């Protein structure tokens, strides 16, 4: 027996943009058309995103997912113009979908009709008075189906910020070839490609990538399926606040009900399915009106990561592990990090954020009005022939600030941030010591060796060797060494001092040795 469930909700957010979406779940009920909704009278919506008014006679065409229920402040008619939806009944079935509720109330409407076996039926003339919420259910007499938030994931867009130069991985990572373009795990796949493939089962092609103009060709080569419309190019480096904020502003103009998720291009995560489970919970939590971060279960008392402190669990459908965030804290000392692990209240901050675009932009406007105004001016011109002129004029003037400082931390103080624990392995590959932890390819004793055709001899040695040449490298009696050999630069340090490579790069830049950076 075939089962199908269709749910529609209509509403308006800030500015009065109405939405009505449909989703079909289960058996044979797969055939449906875009729905046109027209208001026969003026109606007003009061919701989390603010108030909006639609005048008589306005309408939209839409299809897709389920939106939340809203309260109507004025009596009105909401007319579903035919064809409402097409269903082929595999057996005798019933549908419900027409009714009324008092002014100022939100509810589901029920009416009764029949669908003869084997016929395509388009309910016509269905209309409701006094509410912006309606439900149509098509089901067999023997089975029923449930769609509890089943359409939420269809609102989800992933954004991949692919920026930075990875200076702590110099001379392997450089301005022209940053670390996300490299295979740093011996898997045969670059970090960027791995990130894209990890997200695709959640989003399909709903992925935006933000990167520098200089990396356009390399990115297009690694992700040939990425459309030009989904590739946002920075004409000079900015921090994640500008990159993610621009993506949010552009997506908000495509659809203000989108839920955005930001995931860096250069992180290593495993297993992918556990990661995706956490993202699904984060999306459902965001749909409940929160900015959500995915906190990593700490594997050791790290002094190289920031931390997220959380407490009480939230009661959110589809997100059983979501918790309220108390605060974000900076990188601690080793002693403090040990205390964090013992308390059980702290998780590593991996910089992954999921949020309704409207809520993210709201907090950006409150905490960084200059950045917000500039990004919105660019977004307004993005789909016009003024894009290049406005981007060139505005982008260099925008403040450099991370999304953590611009949005997440201020929002946490206002109680708008939640966390979903991520019980997967994660590393931001921040230095060569991380490569030793992550990469077991071509191990020689306790020495990790990377590079095609690397010629390394070792005796009583440990650490990491990365070779981009055919030069023979011999190590004898050295512990925790880091050697990176390229055609024009050689790095020798230890895993203990791996974080200090960034300072060496800064000194090289100050001395004018830009040709090796």
Please explain how this structure is put together.
The protein has 517 residues and is an alpha+beta fold. 23% of the residues lie in helices and 31% in strands. Strands 1, 2, 3, 11, 12 and 15 form a six-stranded antiparallel sheet that branches. A five-stranded mixed β-barrel has the order 21-24-22-23-25, surrounded by four helices. A four-stranded antiparallel sheet has the order 7-4-9-14, with no helix packed on it. β5 and β6 (50-54) form a beta hairpin. α3 (240-254) crosses α9 (403-413).
Provide the β-strand percentage band.
25-35%
Report how far the terminal alpha carbons are from each other: 65 Å
Question: What is the number of helical segments per DSSP (H or I, 4+ residues)?
Answer: 11
Radius of gyration: 27 Å
Helix content: 10-25%
Please state the average pLDDT score: 73
Quick description:
The protein is α+β, with helices and mostly antiparallel strands and 517 residues long.
Task: Describe this protein with a few key phrases.
six-stranded antiparallel sheet, 11 helices, 517 residues
Walk me through the topology:
Elements (H helix, E strand, L loop, with lengths): L3 E9 L5 E4 L2 E2 L9 E5 L3 E5 L2 E5 L4 E4 L8 E2 L4 E5 L5 E2 L4 E4 L16 E3 L4 E2 L5 E3 L3 E8 L15 E7 L28 H13 L3 E6 L3 H7 L8 E4 L5 H15 L4 E4 L5 E3 L1 H16 L3 E6 L10 E7 L9 E7 L4 H10 L2 E11 H11 L1 H13 L5 H8 L8 H11 L3 E6 L2 E3 L4 H7 L7 E5 L4 E5 L2 E6 L4 E5 L4 E5 L4 E5 L6 H10 L7
Parallel strand pairs: 16-17, 16-19, 17-18, 21-25, 27-29, 28-30, 29-31
Antiparallel strand pairs: 1-2, 1-3, 1-15, 4-7, 4-9, 5-6, 5-8, 9-14, 10-13, 11-12, 11-15, 19-24, 20-26, 21-24, 22-23, 22-24, 23-25, 31-32
């Amino acid at each position: 027996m075939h089962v199908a469930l269709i749910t529609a909700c209509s509403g308006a957010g800030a500015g009065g943009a109405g939405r009505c979406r449909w989703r079909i779940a289960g058996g044979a009920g797969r055939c449906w058309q875009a729905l046109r909704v027209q208001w026969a009278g003026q109606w007003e919506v009061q919701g989390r995103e603010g108030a909006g008014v639609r005048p008589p006679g306005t309408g939209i065409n839409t299809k897709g997912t389920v939106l939340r229920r809203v309260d109507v402040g004025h009596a009105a008619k909401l007319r579903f113009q035919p064809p409402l939806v097409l269903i082929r009944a595999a057996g005798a079935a019933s549908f419900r979908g027409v009714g009324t509720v008092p002014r100022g109330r939100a509810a589901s409407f029920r009416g009764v009709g029949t669908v003869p076996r084997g016929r395509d039926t388009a309910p016509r003339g269905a209309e409701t008075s006094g509410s912006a919420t309606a439900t149509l259910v098509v089901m067999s007499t023997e089975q029923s189906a449930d769609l509890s938030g089943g359409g939420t994931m269809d609102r989800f867009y992933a954004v991949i910020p692919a920026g930075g130069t990875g200076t702590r991985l110099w001379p392997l990572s450089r301005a022209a070839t940053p670390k996300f373009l490299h295979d740093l795990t011996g898997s045969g796949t670059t970090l960027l490609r791995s990130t894209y493939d990890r997200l695709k089962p959640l989003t399909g092609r709903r992925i935006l990538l933000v990167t520098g103009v200089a990396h356009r060709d390399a990115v297009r080569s690694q992700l040939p399926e990425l459309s030009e419309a989904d590739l946002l190019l920075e004409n000079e480096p900015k921090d994640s606040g500008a990159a993610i904020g621009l993506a949010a502003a552009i997506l908000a103009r495509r659809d203000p009900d989108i839920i955005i998720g930001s995931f860096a291009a250069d992180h290593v995560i495993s297993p992918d399915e556990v990661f995706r489970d956490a993202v699904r919970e984060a999306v459902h939590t965001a749909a409940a009106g929160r900015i959500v971060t995915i906190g990593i279960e700490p594997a050791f008392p790290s002094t190289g990561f920031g931390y997220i402190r959380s407490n009480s669990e939230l009661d959110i459908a589809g997100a059983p592990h979501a918790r309220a965030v108390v605060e974000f804290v900076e990188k601690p000392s080793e002693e403090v990090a040990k205390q964090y692990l013992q308390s059980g209240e702290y998780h590593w901050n991996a910089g992954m954020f999921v949020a309704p675009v409207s809520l993210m932009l709201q907090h950006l406007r409150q905490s960084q009005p200059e950045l917000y105004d500039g990004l919105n001016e660019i977004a307004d011109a993005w789909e016009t022939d003024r894009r290049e002129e406005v981007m060139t004029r505005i982008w260099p003037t925008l403040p450099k600030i991370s999304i953590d400082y611009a949005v997440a931390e201020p929002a946490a103080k206002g109680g708008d941030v939640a966390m979903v624990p991520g019980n997967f392995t994660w590393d931001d590959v921040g230095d060569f010591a991380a490569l030793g932890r992550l990469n077991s390819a071509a191990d020689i004793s306790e020495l990790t060796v990377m590079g095609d055709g690397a010629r390394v001899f070792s005796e009583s040695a440990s650490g990491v060797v990365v070779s981009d040449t055919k030069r023979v490298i011999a190590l004898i009696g050295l512990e925790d060494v880091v050697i990176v050999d390229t055609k024009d630069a050689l790095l020798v340090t230890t895993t203990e001092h791996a974080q200090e490579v960034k300072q060496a790069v800064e000194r090289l830049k100050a001395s004018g040795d830009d040709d090796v950076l």
